[in-house]
Amino acid sequence: MPPRAAKPTPLAASSDGATAAARPPGRGPDGRKAPAAGKGAGAKKGAKPGKPAAGKGRDDLFAKLGLTRLEDFALHLPIRYEDETRAYPAGQAPLGAPVVVEGRVADVNVQYRPRRQLVVKLIGSGGREAWLRFLNFYGSQTQQFETARDNGRLVRAFGEVRPGFFGPELVHPRIRVVDDGEALPDRLTPVYPTTAGISQPVLRKRIAVALTALRQAGGFAETLPEAVRADLGLPSLDEALTLLHAPPPEDDFAAQLEELSDRHHPAWRRVQFDELLAQQLCLRRAHAARRAKDSPALTGAPTLTDALLRRLPFALTGAQRRVWDEIAADLAQGHPMQRLLQGDVGSGKTVIGALAALRAIESGYQAAFMAPTEILAEQHYKKLRDWLDPLGIEVLWLTGSLKPKAKREMQARAGTDGQLVVGTHALIQDGVEFARLGVAIVDEQHRFGVAQRLALKQKGGNPHQLMMSATPIPRTLAMTYYADLDVSVIDELPPGRTPIRTKLISDARRDEVIAAVDGACEGGRQAYWVCPLIEESEALQLQTAVDTFEHLKTDLPHRRIGLVHGRLKADEKAAVMAAFAAHELDVLVATTVIEVGVDVPNASLMVIEHAERFGLSQLHQLRGRVGRGAAESACVLLFGHPLSETARARLKVIFENTDGFAIAREDLHLRGPGEFIGHRQSGVPMLRYADLERDTDLVDAARDTAAWLIAHAPTTADAHLLRWLGGRADLLKV
Ligand code: ADP
Ligand code: MG
Fold it and tell me: Which of 21, 386, 459, 730 has a CA-to-CA distance to 499 between 20 and 30 Å?
């Protein structure tokens, strides 16, 4: 365990914090991903690390962990365990694993080399020695050891034993001074996901109190049908929780730990099943609620949709035709469609959105078409105008950056005779009231937050919703993230695309890359140059983009080079994008503002600087900006040194895969579902314990059980939902 640098650790209290800090947040002892709540551990704002919160402040911190009711505490389960049930005499403990080392203080020393530290020598019952080392310490700690030494008391130190300079040593162990013969705990010590300001002892105590209170109030009423429990061999919830919160030690601790952290133990399976059942119940309830709402049935004669299909310069692919049939059938129903259209980058989702809009218009309703950025919204606006002008449909434009007068005018049109409004989320916010909104189309849906989705939902008249996303979410995952969503997939690219070649090139070979850009331009093609993502500082990111732009201008003086970044005004951005699309620019230097949706078929080369800083889906999206025309396209991923292991793994994935679904799956493996979309996107509370891919047998059983409970025991279904979701059930409405 590496020493903790920051603050002195008070004795006895929270050196658990130090144990947890030795490991990346959210990871279990073996580096495996921990349940969602562990994710932000130690990194949360607001709480002062190391300073235990009290009273109201502490309740707020608990609430942040999702812990408000007794049940929440009871269902907050350990990420791992420590074994304090056996103690080794000093000098006789095994190396490398955290254990309790016991001995009497022989020596207390404050040393100053190489830096100030407290070193304590313990002598074990066998006469051998071990050293405790504290790199940050309080005077009271020194005193405590001196008193223990003077009174000959026994010290128990918990920590990882490592070979030190003098012999075995523990750095920043957790300390207890005890009487001779004081019993050791008879259960393993649970380590919970927590957040800064809440120490393990505090959390442990609250959880123990909650469990006792719940048992005194009658325990956990069984919500599973007996037959299901018997079939799956599941213990009762009480048995499962008792075991998971405080497992009695087995002889082989390592094997026991492995069994528990594998999560195949029947106790874990019970918890996983319960959680999956709650999810299934929640999906069914949301579905029923949606079916109970009235929406306009879009059943007009297909005059406009047919006209667009006839006029398009291409025929729909088979996959596009299939998803359009699914969507049109939904739109004809009298309750709101809520459908996610997934299709890889370049698979042709926009035209499907256009068809949905026309379906509303030809049925006498309005349509709204939204994109997450102005650049993308603008591009849709232009494309839709190209397609719909000839059909006599006026396309309106509404974004946050419009002048107040123009905005008011557009809002007025939306409230009256406007047929199709394209824009950013300003469309659903800023007091726009549609007169007869039939369908809302949301492009790059994953970029919109819950607040925006809620705003859309709260629009009057229950418009149908078509959400489009190129971040492919595996079907099972989609189910986890959205309360109730149908999914259509375009699993085929339009014909005539040439595959994109991906190259991984070290930063050191930048000159060759610049030459390649020049070559592409020479051949009449265009190139993107994407500047590195600098998450900490937008200003720095902007500066880098400007620098790159200047350098490229110097290196390629005969090429027309443009620059686009997030700080430009909307019309400036639009002007640069338009110039690039019209081939008035050869090279476009850009920050990630071009990430989504931008469509310039003549661009055949994409250079991404410091590709290792980007996420997988981002890289895939960026790469998808090329390979949109017939020309052979390439994507160059420039990487800096040194590459971390995860960065290397990410780049390997993007190098080896072109299929967005495969990439999403790998992404999921590398990052874990919690970070895949982000908690706030979640419509259904995240699964904390179950894993849809690992626990497929439980998923199936949970689905059947949910159907059965709703039909035969609705009050039990309610009780189960309440237990597992409690206050979070309001999330379902999003
Ligand atoms: P995405 O799914 O990434 O949003 P787009 O809708 O931008 O993809 O489509 C990518 C490009 O493919 C556009 O230029 C679009 O006009 C074109 N396209 C769409 N469908 C077809 C098709 N069936 N045949 C040929 N080209 C198509
Ligand atoms: Mg698109």
Answer: 386
